[in-house]
Amino acid sequence: MGKTRLVELDNRGLLAVTGADARTLLQGIISNDAERPAADCAIYATLLTPQGKFLHDFFVYEIGGELIIDCEGPRLADLAKRLTFYRLRAAVEFIDRSADFDVLALIGPDAAAAAGFEEAAPAGSVRPTDGAIAAVDPRLANLGVRLLIPASDSATVRAGFDAEPGTAQDYDRHRLALGVPDGSRDIAVEKSFLLENNIEELNGVDFRKGCYIGQELTARTKYRGNIRKRLYRVYVEGPLPEPGSDVTVDGKVIGEMRSGCDGIGLALLRSEDVDKAADGMLEAGQAKLRAEKPEWAEF
Length: 299
Hints:
Distance between the termini: 27 Å
Number of domains: 2
Number of strands: 17
Helix content: 10-25%
Strand order of the largest sheet: 8-9-10-7-1-11
Radius of gyration: 19 Å
Oligomer: single chain
Order of helices and strands: EEHEEEHEEHEEEHEHHEEEEHEE
Largest sheet: 6 strands, mixed
């Protein structure tokens, strides 16, 4: 993708976590370090079941003294409900701020420069720019820059970026080419584990922060090295398989398809079977797949 594009992420929601105990509460619940979000730093994190299975993923910013969670919009109420369950007597409130900001992304090789970042700014770097909050994507710098723009001044701020309008399909194509999952579209809720979906490599887990919900199984999986499945980028020859379609090799089911777009997608596959496949070729429905490990992944 040679051009810088500005894409509206209209499927996002924003949940403010406020009060004297906001950080303490999140620190004991989410998979990343809740002490890190600041005026110059954002994080990517998840909420798990006590058994270590995926529930939600999101970004956490600090804006105006509040911790702002950028999450899947249609699932914001569920996230708020689950966080409230752990509040007990803590001095914390959860407030829907979705109407206060527009969430957008700058994508393309010059996205960081278009948002005013210096060359090679690390993932999670944050700066104010033209009335917006800009963050180099905390998962992977090559994903571009996420923007939270005040809704009251959105049109003016958008016009200040040197970028062409982009579409949701542009964004999907961009993240899939990098092999990055998109929340519950790619990570099965209450079924999937973080490490098999490469969330550690995407900076979503802190193994030094101490206990959080689901921490025990996540840590055990890491230190025992018992990760049989991984999320792979797949190139598709033929009709794009539906999410959930079985992926096979020589008739044996080795995983299932996740999201896809324009001949590229993601699939959760048994690594040992991918390694044994002749020429790396797999099948899903009427399509042939070629699986590749994303360049940034370490498995």
